């Protein structure tokens, strides 16, 4: 009986974890989609990166695949919790133990580690022998939407999330820092698949901001498939010379059009 109760508790926790991940994805992707693709579609048309709009069947498929991704991410979340309660992680709850400076530093380090992992993992799954069995589903969305953010093959979802348990095994992190990191990650993921560019033309020439990736950057990856592999930052694409040659030209074309539209209004 104890065995059944214990297993029922795990199943319940698993269902809750999946629900949290999937509802969070639907909430933020849904709000973004509603603003850009429904309520403000006409007013924001000049900000489109690609002129056409994806068909409804594509969006339904993205949501379907994202549900399976939520199952994987929910399972990883439970795995992290199990590691913590058994004392295997460096997660700490006493904020004063490391202080505010380290708290901020830990978020930045998580982003840098994740960005490095993502870049090289992303390039790897684009290898011809791996693309079809790992990354093909995500690239069915050649004209991405906010719902593309979690649209992965199950294998890719596992690979995508694998870095998180590794981070908490070696890096002291506060639960709030992990929460902030997850939300920054989701925000970048949705922005990268937004399908619209709302940044100003000077952004990619700014000495600091130019190292942050734009919606145009990842959208071109979905269109071209052989460049622009980074997630948050442009460090690795710049260093490895994998930025698309037309990236700056495309960005200027869209943002200059945005500027002209705003002046005319």
TrEMBL record:
InterPro entries referenced in this protein's UniProt entry, alphabetically: Fatty_acid_hydroxylase (IPR006694), Sterol_Desaturase_Related (IPR050307)
Compartment annotation: Membrane
Transmembrane spans: 13-39, 65-82, 102-120
Domain Fatty acid hydroxylase span(s) in chain numbering: 108-242
Pfam family, one: FA_hydroxylase
UniProt organism field: Psychroserpens ponticola
Keywords, comma-separated and alphabetical: Membrane, Transmembrane, Transmembrane helix
Full protein name: Sterol desaturase family protein
Domain of life: Bacteria
